[in-house]
TrEMBL record:
Membrane topology: Peripheral membrane protein
PANTHER family noted in UniProt: NADH DEHYDROGENASE [UBIQUINONE] IRON-SULFUR PROTEIN 5
Subunit structure: Mammalian complex I is composed of 45 different subunits. This is a component of the iron-sulfur (IP) fragment of the enzyme.
Protein name: NADH dehydrogenase [ubiquinone] iron-sulfur protein 5
Organism, as annotated: Gigaspora margarita
Extent of the signal sequence: none
Keywords: Disulfide bond, Electron transport, Membrane, Mitochondrion, Mitochondrion inner membrane, Respiratory chain, Transport
């Protein structure tokens, strides 16, 4: 019922979206890309934390008995 085709531009856009779902698919791709990005970031952070934990566990502090000596000396001080 419009006099000019420009008057129906929004309805035409909705019609083509309904037929082809281009905007919906583009939105889904963006969401999936962000999800993959966040998963990769989390995996890298976890790996970094794991490496830090492993290096702490491999340190010489516990092998030298520094931690145990402090505990035993504090126990003897209290007796």
């Amino acid at each position: 019922m419009a006099d000019r085709p420009q008057d129906c531009a929004l309805q035409l856009d909705d019609y083509f979206e309904c037929l082809h779902h281009t905007k919906e698919k583009a939105r889904a791709r963006k969401i999936k890309a962000e999800e993959v990005k966040q998963i990769e970031k989390k995996r890298q952070e976890d790996e970094k934390a794991r490496k830090s934990t492993n290096s702490t566990a491999k340190s010489n502090v516990t092998r030298l008995g520094i931690i145990d000596d402090q505990k035993s000396s504090s126990n003897s001080d209290s007796n």
